[in-house]
Structures are given as C-alpha cells and as structure tokens.
Design a protein that fits this description.
Layout (H helix, E strand, L loop, with lengths): L2 E4 L4 H8 L7 E6 L14 H7 L7 E3 L5 E3 L2 E8 L2 E6 L13 H11 L13 E8 L2 E6 L6 H5 L7 H6 L15 H4 L7 E7 L3 E6 L13 E6 L3 H10 L4 E2 L7 H6 L3 E16 L19 H9 L3 H8 L5 E2 L23 H10 L7 E7 L6 H14 L3 E7 L1 H9 L5 E6 L7 H9 L17 H10 L5 H17 L3 E14 L3 E6 L11 E2 L1
Parallel strand pairs: 2-11, 15-16, 15-17
Antiparallel strand pairs: 1-19, 3-4, 5-6, 6-8, 7-8, 9-10, 10-11, 12-18, 13-17, 13-18, 14-18, 19-20
Length: 526
C-alpha cells in the first residue's frame, strides 16, 4: 500500500523559498550503503537501480502509484504477437547535450542483453530490436510476452555516441570486478545529473534544468552519502547532518519517532527474504565430503522446522516484519494464501529428520550473509544460525559487506545464503521464477547461483512467460511456487519492514512506495 506523506509547509517558509536569491534547495540523503556503480547495467540490485533512476530513464516508468506510464517513449503498440513498436519522445537530450534517438535505444538494448551483462535476466523474452526511423523502434520478443513494459521500467537508456567515444559499448560487472568508463561516469536523460562523486563518501546530484518532463520536485541538489553504521546514521538524522534516510534502523525507530524534528514512515515492502541452499554435488565447506546433505529433502525440512520464526520476528526484526511461508508478497500476482503456511517450529522433529537422513550428529556448512544488504540481516542470520546449532548442525557463519560476499555468491562459493527478492521491476511472480529459481539457460536463472532448479518449474515458467491471458498464466506461476514449497527448495522468512525517516523542517512532500524506491523527482522541499 502506497502512502503519500504530506508535511505541511508554513507560509513563511513558502514565501522565503520564492524570494529572489533564496538558498538552493538541498536534500541530504543518508543511505545505508554505497551504490554498486554508476553503470546501471553493472549489477541487478534494486537499490543501485533506484538511485541511478534519478540520472537514467527507461522507455517507460512506474509512477508514484506503481502504474506504468510513458517516459522516453511517448506511446507504444503491439503490431504482432511478438513485436512491439515504440514511438520515442521528441526533443529529449542527454546531460551532455547529445540528442536522444532510436540509435541510443538499440545500442542500450544490445548492451544490456549482451552475454556478459549482469542485467540480461531483466529482459528474459528479448530477441532483437530495429530502427524504423529516428524516433521509432521495434522490439521483437521470443514469443507472446505479457510483461515487456514491466521489464522496460528498469532498462535505462544510455547515449550511443557517449558509449562509443569512451569505449563503453560493452557492459561492466561490479559483482565480478569488471569496470569501465561507465563505472565512474554517467550521462543520462533523467531529472538529475551527477556533479561529483567520491566513492564511499558522497555523490552529488544537481537538477537537470533541461529535463523533458515538467518537474514536480523543487530540489536543486541531492547530496547522497553512504553511512553504513546504523548508529552514525541515526545520529546524523537527529543532528540534522542528513535530511532523509530510506533505511532507518529498526532498533532506533522509537528514538527517531520521539523527536519532534523527525517524521518516521513505516510499512512492509514487496521484498521477501529467504534462505537458499547449495544444491551442487558437494558442499563448499563441510565435514561431509562425499555428498551434499542438502540434496536430501529431509535435511532441508529439518532446517525449516528448526527455525522459530516468531522469535526471529520479535527479536531480530523488532516485531516489524511480516512472517511468511511464501516466496512472494501478497501484492504480487501469482501469490496465493495457502503458500503462506509454514511448518511449526519443532526442534525435536528437526533432530529426528536429520537422524533419519543419516546425520544424527549434524554436519558443518558455510553460511554466507551480508552485513549491509537486507534489513537487520546480520541479526537475522545470527539468530537462525544459533537455532540450527541447537538441533545439532554446525553452521560456519560468514558475515561481511555485500561487496565481499557477492563475488562468492556469484561463483557459488557458499552452502547456505540469505537472499531477498522484490520481483522488481516486473512486480510479478515471473520475476522470481525466471531469474532466481529457473535452471540456468540463456537469460534464465541469472541468480541461480547453486543449481537449485527443477524441470517442472522450468516448464511452468517458460509456458507462463508467453501466455498473454492472466487467467491462464497466473495459475502456472502459483503452481511453480507450490512445487518450490513442496520440495522445500528454499526457506521463506518474511517480507521485510521498510522504514524511512525525514526531517520535518526540510521535507514537505514525499511518496513512499512498497517497492522501497525513493522517487525524489516527486519530492518537494520546504
């Protein structure tokens, strides 16, 4: 559920802001981590893409109510079951002054779907594109495909000439350490352009006065600073060093809410958090050498039963998460209420399952978690690791920043990982199925890092991906989720809480969406 948060501005401040020579309106944004890169194709991570959406734009976009609307494309039509035609917006310029044309769209689509692109899974049905004229392009998909517009909301358009001049036509990959000119430089069409950047210190955005759209915001300058320490971020919020954070620590909500200077916004986001297993032939780090215990369903069931989800919700998540047995949130098409059921916490039953599987004394394994990705992820993983220890298992918990953990995950160097998926930009179950659960093949299974696919799920995913009738497609998605649930392929935990905080004296109007993406071009300052 979206909530529009309106903080009334005083007449005196409104008059002051309108006076000639008034001070530039600056929003100081304190993030919980740094963005992965300035290259929007460098890593398929929601936060990085959300920040870069202030600089880069797609052919279409989600508005404040998560409805698709035109952006760089003025209109579109389906000219055949597999061909979409887009009429591009006239008069748009990139930040460096280059005109936006069909050539930029084609070059961007070629770049994002390149075999080395980390974001190729965001366009799973893409086949090809062609230029009709300077302001018209056609995109061909592999078959009838209902979610192309959803996909395109996160496919940002880059300047072909700029890429060519700077040897940046190929994608970078922050997860694998592949960098290029676009890693540290940006040239979009969006509402803000980047003025300066100091990695891990501050990135400054300034308003694009030549933006094609009619601005709803009145922000002149955004100063984005990654503040990884929760205590430091809260202190900065209370002191006025920052005006806004989209990651307010759960444990500090009462303290922030008690301040008359702070407005706290809290709801649950679309992202579902779960644990995923290494399903290759052998574990990476274990005292069981000859086989992979996780391939035995009884072992996976034991780990599921060994988690006291209520205790995790109350302690690690401060009572603010929504405990679930489903891999997608209720708002996501494909969700069904029966998927939310969880097995009861049963430590003794878990021990029996382990013994029946041949592990009466448990076994060791490597558990990979981030310290700066999901909400309270460190506390979540510590709590679950402790619970698994109590049923006789020996988890070796590896906690580190995502910059260190992501390369290991991509290479499959883990036995269990914490994982979060918001189904963005599709906002549909198909996103999770095709990118995370599906077996690796082409653009499918990009985030399937440890061979946890299932042929039945693959078949349902592929069929659902070309079915235009929602009445037929959505049951396929639900059935695929049911198979994953029945096979205990993953251990769902919760839809994580989303808590923002802002200073009353600075922010007048802000929109908080369930996708947890700040859209500061919709924000007004006092």
């Amino acid at each position: 559920m979206l909530r529009r948060i309106l903080i009334a501005a005083t007449a005196a401040l409104a008059v002051s802001a309108a006076m000639p020579g008034a001070q530039a309106k600056t929003l100081k944004w304190g993030g919980a981590r740094e963005i992965a890169s300035l290259d929007p194709y460098s890593f398929g991570e929601t936060f990085t893409l959300a920040v870069l959406n202030h600089v880069y734009e797609g052919l279409v976009r989600y508005n404040g109510d998560l409805k698709i609307e035109p952006a760089l494309a003025e209109s579109w039509e389906i000219v055949s079951p597999t061909t979409w035609r887009f009429k591009l917006r006239k008069g748009v310029k990139f930040h460096n002054g280059d005109p936006f044309t069909a050539d930029d769209v084609l070059a961007s689509l070629e770049r994002v779907t390149h075999p080395t692109s980390p974001l190729k899974g965001n366009l799973p049905a893409y086949k090809s594109s062609k230029k009709i004229d300077d302001l018209t392009v056609e995109i061909e998909v592999l078959g009838p495909y209902p979610l192309l517009l959803n996909d395109l909301t996160n496919i940002y358009i880059l300047d072909k000439k700029w890429m060519t001049d700077n040897n940046a036509l190929l994608p970078t990959d922050s997860g694998k350490g592949v960098e290029g000119y676009a890693t540290t430089n940006a040239n979009g069409t969006g509402p803000f352009r980047i003025e300066s950047r100091r990695v891990d210190a501050q990135t400054v955005f300034v308003a694009n006065k030549d933006w094609w759209d009619k601005p709803l915001h009145n922000i002149d300058r955004i100063e984005f600073s990654p503040i990884t320490s929760s205590a430091t971020r809260v202190a900065a919020m209370l002191s006025g060093e920052i005006d806004f954070t989209n990651v307010a620590p759960l444990q500090d909500i009462p303290r922030l809410a008690a301040s008359p200077d702070i407005k706290v916004l809290q709801t649950n986001e679309l992202r579902t958090v779960f644990f995923a297993f290494n399903m290759t032939d052998k574990l990476v780090e274990s005292d069981v050498k000859e086989k992979n215990p996780f391939k035995d369903k009884r072992v996976r069931e034991a780990l599921y039963k060994g988690i006291d989800a209520d205790a995790v919700q109350k302690r690690a998540m401060r009572g603010l998460s929504r405990t679930t047995g489903s891999l997608v949130a209720p708002a996501i098409p494909g969700y069904a209420p029966f998927l939310d059921a969880r097995p009861a916490f049963d430590a003794e039953g878990a021990k029996k399952l382990l013994a029946d599987a041949g592990y009466p004394n448990g076994f060791s394994f490597l558990m990979n978690c981030n310290t700066d990705s999901l909400v309270n992820e460190e506390e979540l993983c510590q709590a679950v690791a402790s619970m698994w220890s109590r049923i006789g298992l020996k988890p070796n918990l590896s906690l580190a920043p995502r910059a260190q953990q992501t390369p290991k995950r991509v290479k499959g160097e883990f036995d269990v990982i914490s994982f979060g998926w918001a189904t963005e930009p599709m906002i549909d179950t198909y996103s999770l199925l095709v990118q995370v659960i599906r077996s690796k093949s082409g653009a499918g299974g990009v985030f399937n890092w440890a061979n946890w696919g299932d042929p039945r799920i693959d078949e349902l995913t592929d069929k659902g991906g070309v079915e235009l009738d929602p009445a037929k497609r959505l049951p396929m998605m639900t059935e695929a989720l049911k198979i994953a649930k029945d096979e205990v392929m993953f251990i769902p935990m919760h839809q994580q809480p989303m808590v923002w905080a802002m200073r009353n004296a600075t922010v007048d109007t802000m929109v908080q969406g369930a996708d947890n993406k700040p859209r500061l071009w919709l924000t007004k300052l006092k």
